[in-house]
What does this fold into?
Amino acid sequence: MLIKVKAFPAAKEEKIIAKRRGNFAIYVREKPIKGMANQRIKAVLAAYFHKPESAIRLVKGWQERNKIFEINESD
It folds into this structure.
């Protein structure tokens, strides 16, 4: 399953907001340096979907605010 994420790094508080089906806004405290914010977003998604982090992969948007993640259904 592919989902779209709008990232908000360096936020004051961490939260995930489900917009429409498959669209999320994710606020994380980490700064967008050396992929730290992407790693934290991956961890937040893993907790939200009750999946291991290995089941979540960033497909597009490494250095952009708008990202696409793939969630592996079999894990």
Notes: Residues 6 and 66 are 5 Å apart (CA to CA). Helices lie at 36-49.
